[in-house]
């Protein structure tokens, strides 16, 4: 990403999301997106392989999760590590993108092919977290458990945050999502 | 399923799993499967649409989960309902199929196309549980949380059970998997 001006990428995303919201995902073409963004077709394809890719700029999240787990000091309890990682992602990746993510969410929910891809992203995050904890020496079943909890934690927090009319910060929704899991699992 | 003799279906599954284990999934053909099972090609296609379907005889699990949630009395806490549902599935569906499931698991893990389908099954169970709790009047975020917990619970319990050299009953692995989630989420 560092090779291209981030504002161009951002402009393309915003233009695409506007058009998807106006006309639907299927009916929107790449020429229409580049026209609205005021860039060339070639520029579009430097940033995205197709219009579906516009939604999945956060494909690097599994890699970020893997790096955080690899770099964290030994002996930190898994939940503490996951919480710290999610707070960092919330501040650096999600919070600045709330408007675009809200628009993207609506398009994804209306489009089965995109929902499929969204599931694949969740599975990639699950795999990265699981592998990261295995590499830290956790029991494989504990690693899989923590990975499942992480995905549910992120998904439910993001959903609440994107739907929140009061626009409370994502970190508050992360706290609430963790509490919901604890309540659901209480004996 | 009631229309066809269950032992034919079972024989086809066993033959297919033997062949997949011997030759690999890709290299095994439907004619080889029917020859080993001693049935006609036509019989195969009455039970399965293709060789991949052989793995996914439990496709009815999301529908079973939906029915259990719809029929359960009001006011039962979500975790109690999920636990009861999983115990029923363990006794009626999984425990009698342990040998086949162990064989199937090894083939699925070696075959990306089957892992993809396995993820789809998990997503279907997630959707069924979520919708079932929403229909029972739960808060949608609680429903999604419980669905996420259910999938992690089933997956980690099945994995431990299928790998267990002592062959302890699945119900014991369900208890252990629940405890792992509670420990992972402990403050």
UniProtKB/TrEMBL annotation, chains A, B:
Keywords for this protein: DNA-binding, Transcription, Transcription regulation
Superkingdom per UniProt: Bacteria
Domain HTH tetR-type: 6-66
Ranges annotated as DNA-binding: 29-48
Keyword Transcription regulation in annotation: yes
Record flagged with keyword Transcription regulation: yes
Family matches, as InterPro entries: DNA-bd_HTH_TetR-type_CS, Homeodomain-like_sf, HTH-type_TetR-like_transc_reg, HTH_TetR
Protein name: TetR family transcriptional regulator
Lineage: Bacteria, Bacillati, Actinomycetota, Actinomycetes, Micrococcales
